Amino acid sequence: MSKSSSLNKVFADLPVTIFEAMSQAARDNNAINLGQGFPDDPGPEDIRRAAAEASLNGYNQYPSMMGLPELRQAIATHYGHWHGLKLDPMSEVMVTSGGTEALTSAILAVVQPGDEVVCFQPVYDSYLPIIRQAGGIPRLVRLEPPHWRLNEDMLKSVFNSKTKAVLFNNPLNPSAVVYPREDLELLARYCQEFDVIAICDEVWEHVTFDEHKHIPLITIPGMRERTIKVGSAGKIFSLTGWKIGFVCAAPQLLRVAAKVHQFLTFTTAPNLQAAVAYGLGKSDDYFLSMRQDLTRSRDRLTRGLESLGFPVLKSQGTYFLTVDLSPLGLNESDTEFCWRIVKDYKVAAIPVSAFYEQDPVTSVVRFCFAKKDETLDTALERLSDAVRGRKR
């Protein structure tokens, strides 16, 4: 038997991610990419200038493994201001090379072989492979449109004495839900009853709309000592290529996550850290204006899609909105629809079924609206006939 046939099955058997597949299809078809979640502007100029200044005139050797002290302090101050969360920057805050590395450090710090980990479908694609690499067993909960909410029955069906952790994404990509306090309190009650650690993917925490406010699970009573909170400067500042992540947790949890981080990336570009520290100190007006700008883009794409006959589910947060194709009577799944529109109409989207491993919802499609007006308008023009003529 060839040694290549015995490579790590967790990763060797994984398909190309839907994000890469659809982005490649967008390139191949010269299509507008409303699939992958990145803006088409360069990001805040003052923060980019801060990074350039730090690169030219600052320190460019290995920074502290835990992150620049000024960034760790800025993270603690920022969360204290926005969420009333008091963190010790030296023992409860760590900087990583992006949110995915932060989540990987957290999962590998907590999960051992045989541990069960509760995950909610639709589930971000990195979660399950890392859980399995740690020897963990994912226990999947199926969320459904249009509300994608948690309930007592679904938690009761998966929490048990073997449950070690729950991986919870809020605001939820791809369904664009911002979970209310009652859902968080329900989840917190189960975490405490079964002595479970919550790993919270909260990278979209500043990207919320209308009356919806992000509430970190770590701030719910009883969760402070059993929650690992993950954030992302890339999402906060629309600088997705920078890959600056945050891990916030009680010292006994952070110490082990830091040991994992030490052997993954060890540290992160110091000039980008310095610029993020500057950005986190910006006035509230910056963050509120960012939300207003994204709200306008969300509403522009929503109105346009609805005018074309698409049933849009209201987006409460993230860069995304979703369309439920089921009322349209189309003779195709969400995946078939996405492949058709990228080839025939030159617009890329993501089928939400790709975020399910079991019993997928097959009628929902995700579009990214974090784009310039002209990009959205051109996409809408191209999609003008995508519904008509395809009905049964």
TrEMBL record:
The keyword Cell inner membrane appears for this protein: no
Keywords: Aminotransferase, Pyridoxal phosphate, Transferase
Domain Aminotransferase class I/classII large, chain residue ranges per copy: 31-383
Enzyme class, spelled out: transferase
GO CC annotations, alphabetized: cytoplasm
Gene3D superfamilies listed in its UniProt record: Aspartate Aminotransferase, domain 1 (3.90.1150.10), Type I PLP-dependent aspartate aminotransferase-like (Major domain) (3.40.640.10)
EC number: 2.6.1.17
Coiled-coil annotated spans: none
Gene Ontology terms, MF aspect: kynurenine-oxoglutarate transaminase activity; pyridoxal phosphate binding; succinyldiaminopimelate transaminase activity
Requisite cofactors: pyridoxal 5'-phosphate
Family named by the database record: Belongs to the class-I pyridoxal-phosphate-dependent aminotransferase family.
Protein name (record): Aminotransferase
Annotated organism of origin: Bradyrhizobium vignae
Encoding gene per record: dapC
